């Protein structure tokens, strides 16, 4: 039986060494290469043609999410398994949306990581229990009005709730006064409030700011 050709992409040398050492003793896995960042991972994928890429997320030059997008844009059949320490929404959902076939945490046992590699290689999708719980919570969480705010609008709301004027918000966030006014107007509309006081109360009640 052919071995699963594995490419390890992680910016920590000791992590790469540990993973490579363990995977190399598996009878059905062959580590064909390592890369310290997403750009190098992309280039090595082109030459090494691995079956599975074990991809970290936070790296210099090109992070794991962007590297996943770049690789899959050229090779949509490529199987990428995310291995990371991060479980927040800003990492989990973009990685899965980018096309990763699995998402597991570095706190997993080495044997669990090897099993995940095998499953991804065979065409399965694999998620750690923590990621499954995160997805479940996201699907079942009540939609709130603030979910419709853009990232910048949420930032403006958080500053507005501290009592700053539009000009002070503009100065703090390094944007124009006109832009602040537009964001504030959008915030009022999206939150169904009439003024800054109501917006501030809403932000505090929904724990969007520390007050």
Description:
There is one protein chain. The protein is α/β, with parallel strands linked by helices. The chain has 2 domains: 4-140, Rossmann fold, CATH 3.40.50.2300; 145-206, Winged helix-like DNA-binding domain superfamily/Winged helix DNA-binding domain (Arc Repressor Mutant, subunit A, Orthogonal Bundle), CATH 1.10.10. 53% of the residues lie in helices and 14% in strands. It has 10 helices and 6 strands. The protein has helices at 13-24, 38-48, 64-74, 89-98, 110-121, 129-140, 151-160, 166-173, 177-191, 196-205; strands at residues 4-9, 29-35, 52-55, 79-84, 102-105, 126-127. The chain has a 6-stranded parallel beta sheet, with helices on both faces. The longest helix is centred in the C-terminal third of the chain and has 15 residues, at 177-191. The radius of gyration is 22 Å and the shape is elongated. 30% of the residues are buried. The model has no long low-confidence stretch (mean pLDDT 91). It comes from Lactococcus termiticola. It holds the Pfam family Response_reg. The modification 4-aspartylphosphate is found at residue 56.
What key phrases describe this protein's structure?
alpha/beta; phosphoprotein; 6 strands; Arc Repressor Mutant, subunit A; 211 residues; 10 helices; transcription; transcription regulation; DNA binding; Rossmann fold; six-stranded parallel β-sheet; 2 domains
């Amino acid at each position: 039986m052919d071995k699963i050709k594995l490419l390890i992409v992680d910016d920590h040398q000791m992590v790469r060494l540990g993973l490579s050492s363990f995977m190399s003793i598996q009878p059905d896995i062959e580590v064909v290469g390592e890369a310290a960042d997403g750009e190098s991972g992309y280039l090595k994928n082109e030459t090494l043609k691995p079956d599975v890429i074990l991809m970290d997320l936070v790296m210099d030059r090109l992070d794991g999410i962007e590297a996943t997008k770049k690789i899959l844009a050229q090779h949509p059949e490529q199987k990428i398994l995310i291995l990371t320490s991060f479980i927040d929404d800003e990492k989990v959902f973009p990685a899965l949306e980018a096309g990763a076939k699995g998402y597991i945490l570095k706190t997993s046992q080495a044997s669990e990581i090897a099993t995940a590699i095998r499953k991804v290689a065979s065409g399965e999708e694999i998620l750690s229990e923590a990621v499954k719980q995160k997805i479940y919570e996201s699907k079942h969480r009540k939609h709130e009005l603030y979910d419709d705010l853009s990232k910048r609008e949420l930032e403006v709301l958080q500053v507005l709730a501290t009592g700053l004027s539009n000009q002070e918000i503009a100065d703090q966030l390094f944007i124009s006064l006109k832009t602040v006014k537009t964001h504030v107007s959008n915030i009022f509309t999206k939150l169904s409030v009439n003024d800054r006081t109501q917006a501030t109360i809403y932000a505090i009640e929904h724990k969007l700011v520390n007050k």
